[in-house]
Input
Amino acid sequence: MKIRKDKSGIEFSFTWLFAIIVGAVILVLAIYAATKIIGSGQSETTAAAAKEIGVLLNPLETSFQDDVSTSLSIAADTRIYNTCDDFGSFGSQGISTAQKSFGKFSEPSVEVSFPNKYIFSGEFEEGKQFYIFSKPFDFPFKVADVIYLSSANKKYCFIDAPDEIEEELEELGQGNLLIGNCSASSGMTRVCFGPASGCNINVEYNAGYVRKNSTRLYFETDALMYAAIFSDKNIYECQIKRLMMRAEELASIYEKKANLLSQKDCNSNLDLGIFGASLDNYNDSSDLTSLLNKANEIEGGNEASSCPLW
Output
């Protein structure tokens, strides 16, 4: 008995097998290309978002109001990364973002830098809604408006705060800043004024330091107190360094102004040169107390002068 070989059947099966393989390759290439396009688009979107955030902060920097507050809402889950560099004359403030897609955060976007912004926050803040408020920092003249950024998901409970701090927080009306007897809900950051136990952050208001994770962040003025509360240590120390660098440049400008006024028989008699040299020797936040003493002397002299410089 002869077995008949069906060549047409073999050819038919091979044709379909070849088509399936080619189709699979094309599908893989299509998916790869789509992923690249989506990734590229997402990178451009997050980079644009970082730049827009920087622009949105501009209205907070004002000379006419003491405290300004606003909120920022983003459609997708977003991480706002805060980086600080103290290189050069003024250092720089960096902002980058990453957004969640298909359950995973993208790589941070290209960083956008600003030489004149001072944002205090964690290394990154995550969520869809963010709160931002600012305060002017005077030392003794106005140095800059400092900005505090926090996620609406990160709630702070302020316990036994001084009356002026409670009043200020009430006026801000931020949904993530609570006052008084806060419930011990999970994720709540308890900010206690004084040596209370069971707190995440202790503010020694009169001593001038904030204790977080066994680390002390020293502050002078309420503007820097809030900065220490909301910031990671590295961000805080870097931004304070940048503020002192800016104060040094401003002291030099005011010294030149004083020299011009002295030619018109209007002497301010302020030790701005010495103050600038002290700012140049700034190391970390533990130096703030000695610098503040000198700043207060200069402020008193400027107020008493017949030709104040600021």
Q: What stands out?
A: The chain is about 40% helix and 25% strand. The longest strand covers residues 68-85.
